[in-house]
Model the fold of this input.
Amino acid sequence: MRIAIFNQKGGVGKTTSALNLGAALHRAGSPPLLIDLDPQGHLSSIHGQPPLEAGHSLYAFYQDGRPLHELELEWTHIGRLIPAHQQLIKVDSIFGKGPAVLNKLRSGLDTLDDSQESRPCIIDCCPYIGVLALNAIFACDCLIIPVSTDYLSLQAAEHITRTLQVLEPVMKRRVERRYLLTRFDRRRRMSDDIRNRLRERYGDDLLDAVISENVAVAESPSLNQDVFRHNAASPGAVDYRKLLEELVERGDLRQPG
Done:
């Protein structure tokens, strides 16, 4: 199953959640494929060996038609990664927004699934609506929208919701979405206020699992590690384990192992 993680606001834990959900899947016995769909390449940087040449990155899939399996890198303790490159920024201007390019990633992943044993796929999106983010939305089975506990992030979530409502008639399906509270601080009244507002607006689409404001979660990417390798006993590691458990219970991910 394919999960895309997207928000148009930066600093909400998008890449961190892709990294740590991937690590949680690996620890549960289902190493995923991670796709870095952001020209900034933060997820690829955490991997530690991002490609210097665009021809070895996801850009080659769009520009040259290289199959996705040729672009995968091994990622110890997580699974596999298809890395980004700054040249991905050109995809919007090169291809426009026709149906063929909007379904390009979906088609590529379908071909990949046909050629090997199926595995979970997590897509880390760029923080703006364009061809790349639309590719992820068209390709995914479920969209996770991280919402940090501040009012600007709440507004960004509302904008994404309106965008999905416009896209769904074109896609001819409802995009399953899950709103994930991040940078949650139980000592701040605002955290509970944002959670209550999201619950009122989105009901059961709001996940019960929350990602707490946590030093281990913040520190681990700078060490090229996921939170489990950095500190498996930390509250952040516990939060991401609970996130995986809830996604499995809801049917958004298959039972690992």
The longest strand covers residues 176-184.
